[in-house]
Design goal:
569 residues, alpha/beta, 17% strand
Length: 569
């Protein structure tokens, strides 16, 4: 009743405000997207987002600082840099002066040090009101200098990007800022530090082709225009008509260039969570003290028992293929806290068959990657039935290399009948993508734990299973090829799949005896929704032990340990 009364009061207040606005008693503003007249105070309360259509208004520098930085924590840097006219362009000094007077800003970008829920960062804000936030030599110099100081102070950098591109009045000097800012960010990255660009509307031209797209993690606001060549340039240059939604944030997410689209109301918390997961730490087992536990299966699971070892290999093949078997995302949700999913391979596409991101294992940051088959037939189709494309393997490798940079352990969950074998996969270089993962994973200098939770089909599974240890669930399978394929190749009869399953040695117990897997994970009578918690807690308990064991090793020792493991086969 209290909730209903509050809702009615809010509705009445909105109606009253709307009436006052109609009478001209309240300031109003028109939404450029839906064209509706909005009450300005409500737009401000909604963080400059249209409460009718969700359009994100462009935000002024000081308002952006208020939204993301702790109160009075922002200290500006380099506001005394002098603007010049390198080409002697007529009227350029006057244009700069007019922009300064209109906006109250020194230049199109403001940089400085700030805190986000207590986490220190170097913060940069581009403002479209200042000559469309075009990149001249002062913009490039302020960003490069801020990144250099962040490197010296070992601070992460967050840049809110917004720009129409290069500043035409500065010609080739503007172009040089692309290389200068990129070089500064390379040194910052080589120092093992975090960089997060947040792409706002619009982010185009030379800014997109430099500092906006070089983040460890790239975030974007909904429907932000993001692209190198603007729509007008494309249409006028080559006469190509562009589809609706082209170059918007959602387009960039689908095509693999953006990690996540974040609503403005959630942005500060999301940034804080990412910063917290990137705090410097010693070792790989920095667990929160209050989370120590001993794993004991529930009474229900004890009663169910474990009969998997007595099942035939073919029965296990069928069990591993069940659609209702818990998926990688189910185990992730049960085991880890604060999972943040990242998208895209940064080259072509985001493959939904591979889900990955960062999370906490009782306070210890980890990179988590899983092949996701889907949870029902519609979901399976959306995730391509867990058959990764080249983009999926490249996304996984990108996240693993990111984990290596920030000294995070890697945990993978594998459940795939194999890599996708369609024409587009071959055109995208499926073989190269798998080979590259095997090559790179062998030398990664953080612990890698791989769990076979369903099917482990051929090289498509191995591409995510080059670990220091590989664990396998009791009813999971791991094989060079499906039993059907094996029977077809060797015996020219795919109907002999059941027979093939027995001779291929593909079950957890077979592979444990062959030392291909280090641990068999009990399923307590069968992996299903009722057993999910117990199986997950078993995994979690032993994951902690795994990280404590490998925490004592250097990066070189971890890579050598992995090399020796596979060298022994």
């Amino acid at each position: 009743m209290a909730f209903r009364s509050k809702r009615l009061a809010e509705q009445k207040n909105k109606e009253m405000q709307a009436e006052l606005a109609a009478q001209g008693a309240l300031d109003t503003i028109e939404c450029p997207s839906c064209k509706k007249m909005l009450i300005k105070t409500q737009v401000v309360e909604n963080k400059y987002v249209c409460y009718e259509c969700g359009n994100h208004f462009r935000v002024r520098t000081f308002n952006r600082i208020k939204m993301v930085a702790d109160k009075e924590s922002f200290t500006p840097w380099f506001d005394d840099m002098e603007s010049k006219n390198p080409l002697g362009f007529p009227g350029y000094e006057e244009k700069i002066s007019a922009a300064q007077e209109k906006t109250g800003l020194h230049e199109a970008v403001s940089v400085g040090e700030a805190k986000i829920y207590g986490e220190s960062v170097v913060l940069g804000i581009c403002d479209a009101r200042f000559m469309m936030s075009s990149m001249g030599h002062v913009v490039g110099e302020k960003i490069a200098a801020a990144v250099e100081r962040a490197t010296k102070k070992r601070l992460p950098v967050i840049l809110f990007c917004c720009s129409g591109g290069a500043r035409m009045q500065e010609g080739i000097i503007s172009l040089m800022q692309m290389a200068k800012t990129s070089a500064a960010l390379k040194r910052h990255s080589d120092a093992g530090l975090l960089y997060i660009p947040v792409l706002t509307d619009p982010t185009t031209g030379g800014v997109t082709a430099s500092f906006a797209m070089l983040g460890d993690i790239i975030l974007a606001e909904p429907k932000a225009l993001i692209g190198f060549a603007g729509a007008r340039v494309i249409e006028q240059t080559i006469g190509q008509k562009l589809p609706e939604g082209f170059q918007r944030a959602e387009f960039q997410l689908e095509h693999g260039f953006v990690d996540a689209i974040v609503e403005r109301k959630d942005l500060k918390k999301r940034l804080y969570r990412i910063l917290k997961l990137h705090r410097p730490a010693d070792g790989y087992a920095n667990f929160e003290p209050a989370t120590d536990f001993e794993f004991t299966p529930s009474e229900l699971m004890k009663e169910r028992g474990s009969k998997e070892k007595y099942m035939s290999a073919w029965e296990k093949v069928k069990a591993a293929r069940k659609v209702n078997r818990p998926a990688s995302v189910d185990y992730m949700a049960e085991i880890f806290d604060h999972f943040i999913e990242f998208h895209g391979d940064r080259y072509y596409r985001d493959d939904p068959a591979v889900v990955g991101g960062i999370a906490e294992l009782d306070g210890q940051p980890v990179t988590v990657i899983g092949v996701h088959k889907g949870k029902d037939m519609k979901d399976c189709a959306r995730h391509n039935y867990g058959m990764p494309s080249p983009e999926g393997y490249r996304k996984a490798l990108r996240l693993m290399k990111q984990a290596e940079k920030f000294h995070r352990p890697i945990i993978t969950f594998v459940n795939t009948s194999g890599a996708f074998c369609g024409m587009e996969a071959e055109e995208g270089g499926q073989g190269e993508a798998i080979a590259r993962n095997l090559y790179e994973m062998s030398g990664i200098k953080v612990p890698i734990l791989c769990l076979m939770i369903g099917e482990g089909g051929s090289g498509g599974a191995l591409a995510l299973a080059v670990g220091n240890e590989v664990w396998m669930m009791e009813k999971a399978t791991y094989s060079v090829l499906s039993p059907e394929g094996f029977a077809s190749i060797l015996w020219k009869d795919g109907k002999r799949a059941k027979e093939a399953a027995e001779v291929m040695k593909i079950t957890a117990h077979d592979l444990h005896e062959l030392h291909v897997v280090e641990r068999i994970i009990p399923e307590y009578g069968g992996a299903d929704e009722s057993a999910l918690h117990d199986i997950s807690m078993y995994m979690k308990f032993h994951m902690r032990n795994f990280l404590e064991k490998y925490s004592k090793m250097s990066g070189e020792e971890l890579a050598e340990d992995r090399y020796k493991r596979f060298r022994s086969f």
